[in-house]
Amino acid sequence: MEQMVAKLRARFLPGPSGEEEAAAQRAREASRYALAPARRRVRIEGRVNEVTVRPRSESVPDLVVDLDPFDTSVQPASLVMLGRREVVGIHVGAALAVEGLLTTVKNRPTIFNPAYELLLENEESQ
Q: What is the CB neighbour count within 10 angstroms for residue 99?
């Protein structure tokens, strides 16, 4: 719904282009999580800094992704994908937008099993 409203505004109202407005909105949403209390749903955009597989038991691993947000005023976050050894498209250097329930593990913002989308280079918030 919000995307449709943004497209209509971009088409009929003067001002920043629809792409610029969408990028600004994503940047605002990405920076909100710095102020979000624990156990709140947040959206973060950033670049993958590290990907590791952490054994949880003999047969079930966890994929742990360290994400550096594009907004430098925001603390890096960990993404934990339970039961995964790899996720296609998620590698060091990939740009991601993730959404999920924010919690803190060992004083680090963490999201378990986040919804994610891969961002193209020209979609990144800077």
A: 17
How far is 108 from 69, CA to CA, in rounded Å? 13
pTM over 0.70: no
User: In Å, what is the CA distance from 93 to each residue of 17, 65, 89?
Assistant: 28, 11, 10
pLDDT band at 75 (very low <50, low <70, confident <90, very high): confident
pLDDT tens-digit map of 48-61:
999 999 887 777 88
Residue identified by tokens 């947000």 is 69
Q: Report the alpha-carbon distance of residue 119 to residue 7 in Å, rounded.
A: 19
Q: What is the DSSP-derived secondary structure letter of residue 33?
A: T
Name the band, by pLDDT with cuts 50, 70 and 90, for residue 79: very high
For 92, the token pair is 């060091």
Instruction: Please tell me whether residue 98 adopts helix, strand or coil conformation.
Output: strand
**Please, what's the largest Cα pairwise distance for the chain?**
59
Count how many residues are written for the chain: 126
